[in-house]
Structure formats: structure tokens, C-alpha cells
Amino acid sequence: MLRPLSSLQKFAIRAVDGDIGAVADCYFDDRQWVVRYLVVDTQRWLPGSRKVLISPYSVSGIDWQNECVNVSITREQVKSSPSIDLDKPVSRQHETDFLDYYGYPYYWGGGMLWGVAASPAIARPPAGPEMERELRQRREAEDADPHLRSADYVSGYNIQARDGVIGHVDDFIFDEQSWEVRFFVIDTRNWLPGRHVVLATEWIEEVNWEQSLVHVPLTRDAIRASPEWDEDESLSESAEQSLYAHYGRTRDVGLRSQRHR
After folding, report:
1. Which one, of 134, 155, 199, lies nearest residue 5 by Cα?
2. What's the whole-model pTM score?
3. Which one of 118, 179, 202, 243 is CB 3.0 to 4.6 Å from 35, fit for a cystine?
4. Domain finish residue from 105, 134, 149
5. Are 217 and 162 contacting, i.e. CB atoms less than 8 angstroms apart?
6. In which residue ranges is the amino acid composition biased (Basic and acidic residues) (predicted)?
7. Of 149, 177, 206, at which residue does a domain stop?
8. CB-CB contact of 6 with 18 (8 Å)
9. pLDDT band at 259 (very low <50, low <70, confident <90, very high)
């Protein structure tokens, strides 16, 4: 099911032996638009402690009614996990240390959203020695190219259409099974009073991180005339089809797994 990413904000993170904190932010992969980590504030559990990362590999289920994310790890594992300075870009070295600590596979190996799997729930065990060496070498080559972005930080980026700015990013819509960020919600109230619309992340032409601009190959008139987003309703399959039809596009399911490889 598709859900607004903001709906996870402040959800409790429930380990197998108790709560460890609450969701404070999410980090997504700007190459494939997939949530790679939940940023968890552990202050209530460990006063004076740090924020930690929790991978969707750890998530055993999301309890939307009780507003908590269940994870299949212990409080002690979280307490002893590698320290990461979240005030700086998370490097591939940090990710490798983190994934090695929990025994999770490297998601950057393979051609799918989670390396060799379409979702973290069905990802295979860590790669063998030869593949592991290759992935580590790839990590070293990419270490200076941070690719994880804060959802909180990117919220507010302006949407640059072909003929001008037409709003800003207000939220993201993700698939709770694959953790793929499928759409972003655009607040157009400065141009279209009271209206929110959604655009598919696969339509993004470019993101200018320095200027906080998301470029899309669409016109302002096309965005103005697009179906309105109702945050109280889920994005159904028929609504998706209507959205794609409005822009004269079809969803290429295989496109996302190959992007930026």
C-alpha cells in the first residue's frame, strides 16, 4: 500500500524487547528513490543519547493503528550499533560498517531496488566473498559521493516546470513493502490556492541540490490541471492510472530498478 512518508513521523520504534525511540526523519537514496534508513531519536530511552539509523531490513511490520514500527532487533543491538554523525553526509563506509554490524546485504549490489531483491523483506543473505570484495571496491569508489538525502531537508524544495516554478515539495508517498518513494506531493498554494498535487519521482529530470530545485519535464498548465491530492485518501490503482493518463505516460515498472546503475 502507498502511504505518505510524513505519516511515519514520531511513530515509536519497537524492538523485540521494548521501545527504543521515535522516528525523527527518513533518509532516501537519491539515485533510486528508496527509503534506506529511518532516523530514530532515542532520547526517551537513553537520555542524552544519539540518534540512530534503522534499516528497513530490520522492519518486521508497521502497525499503523498503534503508530509504531516493529523491528526484529534488540535494544542492546541498537545501543551498540556503529556511531554515525548525522550532522554530516552518511558515507558508503559508514553504511558498510552499519550493514556488516547487523549482517545485512549491501543494497548497491545487483540490479533491483534492494540489490538482488525488490523489497528488504525478501533480500537474500550477504553476498559471497568474491561479490563482497567487488561491492567493497565499489563502495570505496563512491565514498566521496553521498547519495542519501533527508526527507525533512528536501521537503520545501521548489518544483521547476518547463516554464517556471509551480510549488514546492510538501511530502513523499512510499510503498510500505518495497520502501520505494513513488511520488512526491506538491504544495501549489502560492499558485493554486488550496491545491496539492502529486508527481511521480520517475518523472524527475534533475535535482539541483545546491539550488534546492526539482526539475520536471512538464508545463505549469499540465500540473495546474492535474488531479488534486487528497491526503485523507490512499492513492488507489485507479487514481494512479488517472494521474499517468493525465500526463500521457505509462508506468514502466522495470525502469526504477535500472536507474542510475
Report:
1. 155
2. 0.87
3. 179
4. 149
5. yes
6. 130-145
7. 149
8. no
9. very low
